[in-house]
Write a structure and sequence with these properties.
Helix content is about 70%, strand content about 5%. With about 475 residues, the chain is an alpha+beta fold. It folds into 3 domains: about 130 residues, no CATH class; about 90 residues, no CATH class; about 190 residues, no CATH class. It has a 5-stranded mixed β-barrel with strand order 1-2-3-4-5.
Length: about 475
């Protein structure tokens, strides 16, 4: 506004004094000769009049110009005000647009962040689906159900190989295959399939699949176990030798006559193969070396002695209990003759002790007790017979086993010295064979120790009965029941 006022002031000054600069420049020069005095005054007046007239006209023109300028100034101020209003409106619009732009930028950032999160989630989901498909493919390739339906896992190839997000159709197919696998794994199925027999030829026959554990072939009356070959998606006859008892039970199972059921291998053949590789008892005996024979002899001798002791002690214990039950009330009543008759009809050691005591009842109590003690000692000898032998066998058997282990280890280290330790199986096999003797020695010693303890308890029970009834006899004699003659 200040600039506009200054411009207007300059324009007014130019209008009011248009000839000031011209007059200064065109001032009249002094005449060369003096003019007449009267005409000069007249010219001056005329000039003054013209100047006044020109000044009046200039003032009028300046007033008109000032009025026009003022009118134009109002118009300019109105235009300026309008422009300022428009500018203010434009500024407000710009501020709104700026705010909307900032909000849009924030929304774009949020959308980009969410898009990144969705992409990461989709990538993670796709990776999970791909991993599940890979795991399911491995499970299907090892499943016996695939032997009945080869090529099942091909529906999983798009999920495993493609890098983009999996389609719902492929995910649905994977779910169908998974649920089909779960359903068929829990069932027993009988189908006609082609399998590879022991001679390597393809044979077609009935195959019974027991879940995902084992499969049986039964053709022409023969029965056997099958193993699944994942690479070929086919069954082959079990290469390892399955125990004959397993085959018999499988035969009975196929004929629906098995009362025990069926031997199955949850490891899909691994346990059967391990069992087939285990040596039988004869091979194990031979692998133990020469010391296995004295260990077996000691074991057999211990079994014979234990069996003989068992029969003797059971029979003696039974006879002792029977005689004790019948002779006790007779002795307490002092019926010596009847007691002698009961003792004579029994072969128990108690009968000999009581007979000796009754026959010496006339003697002094000290003599009677000595006679009874002597009879008890004589009766104990048959009871203790071979008990020491069992103890010796229980000690000798593990010592022989330890000796066999030591000699076997010496032989193993000698082999290592000669051939080196390049093959660990050589060393482990030698140690295993060396430990067999200790195993058999302990296998013999432990039961014999237990049996010896049982037999010793039986002997102590019989001896306690002898001593109890002997004291009863001595007390009856001391009390003077019955006739001492």
């Amino acid at each position: 506004m200040k600039k506009q006022a200054a411009v207007i002031t300059v324009i007014v000054a130019l209008i009011l004094f248009p000839g000031s600069s011209a007059r200064g420049e065109n001032a009249p020069q002094a005449p060369a000769a003096a003019a007449p005095a009267a005409p000069a005054g007249t010219d001056i007046n005329e000039a003054q009049r013209k100047a006044d007239e020109d000044a009046r006209k200039a003032r009028e023109e300046a007033a008109l110009k000032e009025a026009e300028i003022l009118a134009e100034q109002g118009k300019l101020e109105a235009v300026i005000a309008e422009l300022e209003g428009k500018k203010k409106a434009v500024d407000e619009i710009n501020a709104g647009l700026k705010q909307r732009y900032d909000e849009s930028e924030k929304k774009i950032a949020q959308i980009q962040k969410r898009a990144e999160e969705i992409k990461n989630e989709s990538d993670e989901l796709a990776g999970s689906v791909r991993g599940i498909a890979q795991d399911l493919g491995v499970a299907l390739s090892q499943s016996m159900v695939s032997g009945e339906s080869p090529g099942r896992k091909k529906v999983l190839d798009p999920l495993v190989t493609q890098m983009q997000f999996p389609s719902l159709e492929n995910v649905q197919k994977m779910g169908d295959v998974l649920f089909d696998e779960i359903s068929r794994n829990g069932k027993l199925s009988v189908t006609t399939l082609t399998y590879v027999d022991a001679a390597g030829k393809e044979t077609r026959g009935e195959v019974t699949r027991i879940g995902n554990f084992n499969a049986l072939w039964h053709t022409g009356g023969g029965v056997g176990y099958l193993e699944y070959a994942p690479a070929k998606e086919a069954f082959t006859q079990f290469s390892a030798k399955v125990p004959s008892s397993y085959i018999r039970e499988a035969q009975r199972f196929i004929e629906d006559k098995s009362a025990m059921g069926l031997y199955i291998d949850p490891s899909s053949g691994g346990a059967f193969r391990f069992i087939s590789d285990m040596p039988d008892w004869w091979e194990e005996l031979k692998s133990g070396g020469s010391l296995m024979w004295p260990i077996c002899f000691v074991g057999i001798l211990g079994v014979i002695i234990a069996f003989e002791r068992l029969l003797v002690l059971l029979r003696e214990s039974k006879k002792t209990q029977q005689l004790s039950a019948t002779v006790t009330p007779v002795i307490q009543q002092g019926k010596w003759e009847e007691a002698l008759q009961l003792c004579s009809r029994s072969t128990a050691g108690l009968a000999r002790v009581l007979t000796a005591g009754i026959n010496h009842r006339q003697e002094a109590p000290e003599v009677l007790e000595s006679v009874i003690e002597e009879a008890i000692q004589g009766t104990m000898k048959p009871l203790d017979r071979n008990m020491a032998s069992l103890q010796i066998i229980a000690v000798v058997a593990p010592l022989l086993g330890l000796l066999g282990t030591v000699t076997g280890m010496i032989a193993t280290f000698q082999m290592l010295t000669i051939y080196g330790s390049g093959d660990p199986r050589m060393m482990s096999g030698g140690i295993s064979e060396a430990l067999i003797t200790t195993e058999y020695g302990l296998f013999i010693a432990i039961p014999i120790i237990l049996v010896h303890g049982y037999f010793q308890g039986r002997v102590n029970g019989i001896i306690n009965t002898l001593e109890e009834k002997s004291m009863m006899l001595v007390n009856a004699v001391k009390k003077g029941k019955g006739s001492r003659s």
